Amino acid sequence: MPDTDQGTTEFWEEFYGQRDQVWSGNPNRLLVREVEDEPAGRALDIGCAEGGDAVWLARRGWRVTAVDVSATALARAARHAAEAGVAEAIRFERHDLAESFPDGAYDLVSAQYFHSPVAHGTERADALRRAAELVAPGGVLLIVGHEGWPSWQEPHDFHLPTTAEVLESLALPDGWLVEVQETVESPAHGPDGEHGTRADNVLKLRRSAP
Question: Which Pfam families match (predicted)?
Fold first, then answer.
């Protein structure tokens, strides 16, 4: 497990510095499932990593603001966007979301696997509440996270919240509709060739139009 006294930026820079590419470059499949029928508009991708989701959204006509705490990840994401021919549709911004957020209102705010082993206290819940505030009327907040550990792995001492816990922590005012609240179990593969399953939580919320 990582050193929990390690700073957020330091941890994620070290994480991405261990290899030239961490993720596949493909969009998260649960994002695709929930967003592919949504009309394109303005999207905010928090914790965008190496840009797979942001590039997929841009290819579908979205104007994307993609944020991450890691400058290394953002540089790779920008390169991915340029190679995909969608660089002009994506604005990349570096933010430690415990300290700052991008400006604007968005038709989609996406938080895909927004977990951090070095987050302290209520930082994740606070960031998701702030993200919800940026959803425009009629827009969607989509939060996808791990429900538990892969079937081949012993659980760690790290709490992965349920959809009910996330919903409670958001403390949303009136005017929000829960469209999807479910746990999805899928085949999964580990870095050393392991095969098994992993369960993910999906929470899709829509802010009422005026």
Answer: Methyltransf_25
